[in-house]
Amino acid sequence: MRKPLPLTPSQPPTPSRPLTPNQPPTPSRPLALSQPLTVRQPLALRLPLTLGRPLALRLSLVLGLLLTTALQPSAPAAAQSAAAPPPSSLTWQPCPGDKIGMACADLQVPADWRKPDGRKITLKVGRLKATGTSEGAVLVAYGGPGGPGIAMTQSLSGWWSKLRQRMDIVTWDTRGYGSDQFQGLSTGLPCTWTRVPIADFPRDMADFGRLSDTNRGYAEACRLKDPELFANMSSADHARDMEAIRTALGDAALNYYGASYAGFYGQAYARLYPGRVRTMVLDGTANHSAADWSGESEAMARTNEESIRRFFTWCASNGCADVPGLWRKLIARADRTPIPTKTENVAYQAGDLQSFALGMARQGAPVWPKLAEAIRKASKGDASDFVPARGARYPDQATPVTECTDWPRFANLKEMTAALTRLRKIAPNVGAANTLASATLNCIGWPVPVTNPPSALPKGLPPLLGAGAWGESDAVERVLSQVPGSAVIRHNGPGHTLYGSNPCARDHINAYFTAATLPPRKTQC
């Protein structure tokens, strides 16, 4: 068994390459799930938060505490005593279709971690062995949820070349997201993952009831194929799987890199197994460790308002000083009457325009002239420039099987209306668009409860490391502020996650994994 190295803050490493700013996320639509896998970036959070569009399996680039069940332990100690199987030897063989020397192994875990002797499912685990003497393993997850860790690592193996000089790179295909649509090799849910538009905010109890029944209807079509697995797909279930992988590897403690939504898996692991964390990197994720979930949605709205105001500030000196005023009038009008487009049967309400505009604003100066022109054109009655070039025509969301077990949703119309009023006051230009308030609308009426509600991180964790571009770094900072000695790497520019595209951030993260050294608390890359 490998022993964890001590964690010692130190001066940052000197990047071996000049800093290349993180590239902005692609603004357009997700790949069709039947398309061949082409991986360039980690999967985004499947929120429409700060990433322009939610994702099913777009691998280029992304962002609800009413009910709990016995699955959620009353204390971290309870989780540590109940979950992982005893150490076992994994049998490694070449991964299917391998071309880079990656080995795979099958690991059996409970479908329901409350029933360790019950039905088992298979996790496919992949490993790239260290090119030098191995000092341990880093477990990697790319997000989604549903990003196929094995296929993505095979496509992104160059990311890990420097870290592999000292560490094994281990990944896995997460439970439920199988080969039919996600190219995952673990046990999958045998259902079709659909995409539906983000719902409008209900205006009365009848709207609220119809939304609840609509959500339940399309969820049941998936749930009934495998009720047990459907109910055990939360980030906490993925975290328990991570612990099983750590145990099977024989590692004394966990080193973990979680990009985008996989940062939720890391936060869940930190709550369940705080004494088993050596190092943990949360890259471009959202905060699932807020004691006040409504407050977190408000913080997200403030970040979104900052994004659109950053664009307005640019306009003041780039020939579009008229745009902020036009935008406010446009949103007020669209809240009453949808703005038409030249695309048949497509017209946009205020929330649609706010979601699209935020996605464009977060891509930075190269896209801002196009956004200014789209606003001008829409203010004259034609919102066609907001219509995506391909894919669905409205802000949408994939079947949120994991998300609806992680995100508390509104219990009733009164609660939703109060939250909406607060968010619109905080962010007058963008309102509740691309926040948890809008993303969780599709979870109202979900047939399984929230089994992994957000909660604060426990005491006793070692210092953790976060990273993120505009907005993301603020969310990661809210997570890591709970863990003394932690640090956040910030990129003051557009993008989603840093490790794959920002050499400065990558060098700091590699030093943290290998030597357990942290950069200064608010490092800029």
UniProtKB/TrEMBL annotation:
<feature type="domain" description="Peptidase S33 tripeptidyl aminopeptidase-like C-terminal">
    <location>
        <begin position="433"/>
        <end position="525"/>
    </location>
</feature>
<dbReference type="InterPro" id="IPR013595">
    <property type="entry name" value="Pept_S33_TAP-like_C"/>
</dbReference>
<feature type="region of interest" description="Disordered">
    <location>
        <begin position="1"/>
        <end position="34"/>
    </location>
</feature>
<dbReference type="InterPro" id="IPR029058">
    <property type="entry name" value="AB_hydrolase_fold"/>
</dbReference>
<comment type="similarity">
    <text>Belongs to the peptidase S33 family.</text>
</comment>
<dbReference type="Pfam" id="PF00561">
    <property type="entry name" value="Abhydrolase_1"/>
</dbReference>
<feature type="compositionally biased region" description="Pro residues">
    <location>
        <begin position="1"/>
        <end position="28"/>
    </location>
</feature>
<dbReference type="InterPro" id="IPR051601">
    <property type="entry name" value="Serine_prot/Carboxylest_S33"/>
</dbReference>
<dbReference type="Pfam" id="PF08386">
    <property type="entry name" value="Abhydrolase_4"/>
</dbReference>
<dbReference type="GO" id="GO:0016787">
    <property type="term" value="F:hydrolase activity"/>
</dbReference>
<keyword id="KW-0732">Signal</keyword>
<feature type="domain" description="AB hydrolase-1">
    <location>
        <begin position="137"/>
        <end position="322"/>
    </location>
</feature>
<dbReference type="InterPro" id="IPR000073">
    <property type="entry name" value="AB_hydrolase_1"/>
</dbReference>
<keyword id="KW-0378">Hydrolase</keyword>
<protein>
    <submittedName>
        <fullName>Alpha/beta hydrolase</fullName>
    </submittedName>
</protein>
